Amino acid sequence: MTATVFFAVLLAALLHAGWNAVVKGGSDKLASMAGMSIGHAVPGALAILVLPAPAPEAWPWIAFSVALHFGYQWFLLRSYELGDLSQVYPIARGSAPVIVTLVSVAFLGAALTGQQLLAIGLIAIGILSIGAARAGRAAPQAILAALITGLFIASYSLADGIGARLSDSPVAFFGWVAFLGAFPFALYTRLKRPGLLLQLPKAAPAAFFGGGWASFTAYAIVVWAFTQAPLALVTALRESSIIFAVLIGALVLRERVDLARAASVFLTLCGVVLMRLAR
């Protein structure tokens, strides 16, 4: 992984942690997630207009990705209703790199060095241990929802990685996913709470105007990175966003950071450094 890709994915991780904090920090979780998801439509449409269309081989993956992203959004929203950011986020995000690595090595022919596998392992263990430290106090439903969210994260990451490589235009690929993906969540919002769609600019202005753009930019960087480096490495590095999430949780949302969580963040950081040094 080149330095350009490495630091671009770290920027995406920071943006990703930020928009998750917007959703968790908002008093109306459905409005925040709807604002974020529907807010994708504008940058997605711009990407569609200015970039070359994806290759025909990528379109089945676009459709598959739209479905997987909706599942992820629904379960993430459910997870945040049942648990707090610093508990749910690590469980969901920490499981994804493990699944992506196993599938990449077993079925996609990825060749990873021992150092790279160790780096992925450190990041995953560090992230999971943050959530595990509070798992005993979590509702079982919150843990289950977070684990299912992690499965969706791994699934859409693999689908987007494969689709982006086939598309010849990775940002346009995600532009279509983001644009089309706004419609199923808008329909869900309409059925869940009639009238909310028209109120989104007032009900969730941060998510609607800023979070959608931040989320789109973050994942567009990741989708581009999928075409430049192994999927497992990009996915694991992206999940280092937990470091930023814990900082945001402590400084903005006033969530407590104990010694165990600080040690977990340090372990994750060690994995990030090792990934940068790995050859």
UniProtKB/TrEMBL annotation:
Q: Please name the GO terms that the record assigns under molecular function.
A: transmembrane transporter activity
Q: How does it sit in the membrane?
A: Multi-pass membrane protein
Transmembrane segment boundaries = 30-51, 58-77, 97-130, 142-159, 171-191, 203-226, 232-252
Domain of life assignment: Bacteria
Per the record, GO CC terms? Answer: plasma membrane
Enumerate the spans annotated as EamA domain.
Answer: 7-130, 142-275
For biological process, the GO terms are: lipid A biosynthetic process; lipopolysaccharide biosynthetic process
Q: Which InterPro entries match?
A: EamA_dom, EmrE-like, Small_drug/metabolite_transptr
What Pfam families does the entry give?
EamA
Keywords attached to this Swiss-Prot or TrEMBL record, sorted alphabetically, are: Cell inner membrane, Cell membrane, Lipid A biosynthesis, Lipid biosynthesis, Lipid metabolism, Lipopolysaccharide biosynthesis, Membrane, Transmembrane, Transmembrane helix
Localization in the cell: Cell membrane
Q: What is this protein called?
A: EamA-like transporter family protein
The species is Jannaschia aquimarina
